[in-house]
From TrEMBL:
GO cellular component labels: plasma membrane
Entry protein name: Immunoglobulin domain-containing protein
N-terminal signal peptide: 1-29
Pfam name, any one: ICAM1_3_5_D2
GO terms (BP aspect): cell adhesion
Higher taxonomy: Eukaryota, Metazoa, Chordata, Craniata, Vertebrata
KW Transmembrane helix (keyword) present: yes
Source organism of the structure: Molossus molossus (Pallas' mastiff bat)
Keywords: Membrane, Signal, Transmembrane, Transmembrane helix
Transmembrane segments: 258-282
């Protein structure tokens, strides 16, 4: 009888494989360029990595071959590798800091093969470049432009972006929305005096009372006092100009409110009394007239009924 060889159990096979793996030879090649891999081993597998430097002429589909040689056995596999070049797009402003009213050119360009979209530009056929002209205004200050490039590689669309910020210089501004012209508050209430000036560079703002030059505290939470009443001139100043705005502060006094309320109540009572007296006198006179008329009618009827 021929003896039958028994197969080692699975744990023993794995242990044997783990012992033999470090003896395996790993080969990596990109087309005909042999690479120098770094190999990492685990219990039952290995991992090989390698760096490769390619030139622009090698762009396109290449074949990567991986072979493992252990004893007299060789296993290999091959995968396609797509080599591409996709730098970030170029976004340029003719000037990055301009006075208000200046025409600015915004241009976005991508690498060959990619298409771009540019924020602020009108939509059109996808192209490797886009541009438009902008008449810079105060609203464009610190405006950020986005240039986005897209490139399709091996069925996937890749994106790269570039941004630029425009600074617009403009003189001071004070308007009703940010610096109201009339403030009315109750005495002893807590209020924040808000008056915001706009401009680039940022203007200096101060508010002084017309009659005595007293300073109005701006931007702080303060207790409203009676002596804050008055008309103030708020002035915003920068190297690009000066702008002024008149602001009126009214402080309502509690004592004055009570006096005003009492006066109104007294006036209402007086008017009500006058109206009541007038109505009484009118009704009295009307009744007297009606009584006299009835007497006259009765006397006339008696004369008609008396025989001659």
């Amino acid at each position: 009888m021929i003896p039958i060889a028994t197969r080692p159990p699975l744990p023993a096979l794995l242990a044997l494989l783990g012992a033999l793996l470090p003896e395996a030879q790993v080969l990596l090649a990109l087309e005909d360029q042999r690479l120098e891999p770094t190999v990492e081993y685990s219990k039952d597998s290995l991992w090989a990595t390698a760096w490769v430097k390619v030139t622009p002429e090698e762009k396109g589909i290449q074949h990567l071959t991986c072979a493992v040689i252990l004893g007299n056995q060789t296993q290999w596999t091959q995968e396609k590798v797509t080599i591409y070049s996709f730098p970030a797009p170029n976004l340029t402003l003719s000037e990055s800091e301009v006075p208000e009213g200046t025409m600015v050119s915004v241009e976005c360009k991508a690498h060959a093969g990619a298409v771009v979209t540019l924020s602020g530009a009108s939509a059109g056929t996808p192209a490797p470049s886009a541009q438009f002209m902008l008449n810079a205004s105060a609203e464009d200050n610190e405006r950020t432009f986005l240039c986005s490039a897209a490139l399709e590689v091996a069925g996937k669309v890749l994106h790269k972006n570039k941004t630029q910020t425009l600074l617009v210089l403009y003189g001071p501004r004070l308007d009703e929305r940010d610096c109201p012209g009339n403030w009315t508050w109750e005495e002893d209430s807590q209020q924040t005096l808000k008056c915001q000036a706009w401009g680039n560079p940022v203007p200096k703002l101060d508010c002084h009372r017309k009659v005595d030059g007293a300073l109005l505290p701006i931007g702080d939470l303060r207790r409203v006092m009676r002596n804050m009443s008055g008309t103030y001139i708020c002035k915003a100043t920068s190297r690009l100009g000066v702008v002024k705005r008149e602001v009126v502060v009214n402080v309502i006094h509690l004592q004055n409110n009570i006096v005003t309320t009492v006066i109104i109540l007294v006036a209402v009572l007086v008017i009500s009394s006058i109206v009541g007296i007038a109505a009484y006198l009118y009704n009295r006179q009307r009744k007297i007239r009606e009584y006299k008329l009835q007497k006259a009618q009765a006397a006339a009827a008696m004369k008609l009924n008396t025989p001659p």
